[in-house]
Amino acid sequence: MERLQKYLAECGVASRRKSEELIVNGHVMVNDIVIKELGTQISEKDIVKVDGVVVEKEDHVYYVLNKPTGYVTTVKDEHNRPTVLDLFSEQDKKYRIYPVGRLDFDTAGVLLITNDGAFSNKLTKANFEIEKEYVARVEGLVTKLEILDLKRGVVLKTGYKTKECKARVISSDKRNNTSLINIIIHEGKNHQVRLMCDAIGHPVKKLTRVRVGSITLDDIPRGCYRKLKIHEIKEIMGR
Ligand code: URA
Q1: Ligand 1 pocket check for 67: Cβ under 6 Å
Q2: Of 110, 193, 202, 210, which is best to mutate to test ligand 1, by the most ligand atoms within 8 angstroms of its C-beta?
């Protein structure tokens, strides 16, 4: 048995709160009887309709995409730019998948895609402590002191002070006056890594997310995706 509004939300009809509104406003029928009471319990045998259309639970699907630059991390873009969903087959898109969190248009790498709201919530909740690892090619030669600043937290131009993180220089290219750095953060403020690099005076030229939790790019080619493995899903859901 399950509460009607929870069932509707899990079927992807609407959020839990919007589902409650649908119920109260008389849009929902159970076995062809309009139900307006919140908290009505239903079982698998009951037939639920919203505005006359049967709603059923969809299977949950989970993917990791190696996002290329030049794609927006939304389901639909108001400026008609390519979206990350354009990289998925029609068959896989039938599951009403969407990206979890965001990567900038110009950022490449690990992006999780699902149709499971609970999974997405776990990952995007502000206090959720999953590691996100980035490799950035930045302008100039980054010093040890600047790395220490990154590690301790820097004040972004938004006024936000970042939490402690891990950071190191992978290599310095004196000829081209650039550095390759690795940054591991737990937070997910908008443009966080770019703003952190700006804060130490080394703007990002190229940014790739190489890991979320234990999920890495493996050998997924750019623009391609694979299903998450059971243990990868459990690692996130178990938190
Ligand atoms: N930090 C950024 O600045 N951009 C991203 O896309 C991800 C993290």
Answers
A1: no
A2: 193
What are the sequence ranges of the domains in the chain?
Answer: 2-54, 62-125+218-237, 131-212
Helices of type H across 25-175:
90-93, 117-124, 144-152
Catalytic residues: 104
- In this structure, CATH architecture of domain 62-125+218-237: 2-Layer Sandwich (3.30)
Minimum CA distance residue for ligand 1 atom 4: 191
- Rounded CA-CA distance 46/31 in Å is 6
94 and 172 Cβ atoms separated by less than 8 Å: no
Model-level pTM?
A: 0.81
**In Å, how far are 30, 36, 57, 103, 143 from 60, measured between CA atoms?**
23, 28, 9, 22, 46
The predicted-structure confidence for 122-160, as pLDDT tens digits, reads as follows 888 755 678 999 999 999 999 999 999 999 999 999 999
Model confidence pLDDT, tens digit, residues 163-217: 999 999 999 999 999 999 999 999 989 999 999 999 999 999 999 999 999 999 9
CATH 3.10.290.10 describes domain 2-54: yes
Q: How much distance in Å is there from the Cα of 93 to the middle of ligand 1?
A: 25
Centre of ligand 1 from the C-alpha of residue 194, in Å: 6
Has domain 131-212 been given CATH number 3.30.70.1560? yes
